[in-house]
Amino acid sequence: MSPIFENKKIILxxxxxxxxxxxxxxxxxxxxxxxxPLVTTTLLSLLLFPLGIFVGFYGPIGRSFKDSFxxxxxxxxxxxxxxxxxxxxxxxxxxxxxxxxxxELVTESFDYEEVxxxxxFVEDTLNHKAYLKKKVKYLVPDTKVTLKAGEILYFRxxxxxxxxxxxxxxxxxxxYFYLSNKxxxxxxxxxxxxxxxxxxxxxxxxxxYALICKTAGKNEIFEINKLESLSYLKFLYEKLT
Length: 241
Description:
- By secondary structure, the chain is an alpha+beta fold.
- It folds into two domains: about 5-120, no CATH class; about 155-240, Pleckstrin-homology domain (PH domain)/Phosphotyrosine-binding domain (PTB) (PH-domain like, Roll), CATH 2.30.29.30.
- It contains six helices and seven strands; from the N terminus they run H-H-H-H-H-E-E-E-E-E-E-E-H.
- It has a seven-stranded antiparallel beta sheet with strand order 4-3-2-1-7-6-5.
- A hairpin with a 4-residue loop joins strand 1 and strand 2 (about 170-180).
- Helix 1 runs antiparallel to helix 2, helix 1 runs antiparallel to helix 3 (about 60-90) and helix 5 packs across helix 6 (about 225-240).
- The protein is globular.
- The mean pLDDT is about 90.
């Protein structure tokens, strides 16, 4: 799953859990009140009181809300990904047909732009694998990046940005990661910056990351979970430098 949407899933899932807390607390208090000897028998009291404590502190309703949301989120994301894979095989789709398919995938958790974002991420990942096999580079159309004169984008994906070393780093942001013929570009939720290729003294990839060492400043790590994308990124970097 795209790290951007993995992060969204976690945030919304926790919000669902919090929304169920009021029910857990209310039921917990109700069970505790019903367990008093004035209201019920001693035996029932012994059952209701610990049950009230369990519901109030463990939060089974909030947890069930969260689990249900996460399951629905995963199913929707997978449906969009499957549709994206199908669409990538049909190069003759008109903009009207694409628009119709995107609208059909819109849900409460994924609006129109987010559906397009998932489709773009999946198609980019599939393209990385195909382009790596052919050893070719193609320009990537994108509206988020303000290009400089003569600049061409060749790579795009979703990433987690961190600083430090692969074994000891601090996560800074989540967002979009690009490579052009001039620089690496990161556009995050809280931070956006670029690294010109001439400032890089070392570039290497691991199983799930790209490490960029610069002439000055902290090392930058971009987590990318698809090995084909990482391998294609390395191919492009070596081709462009």
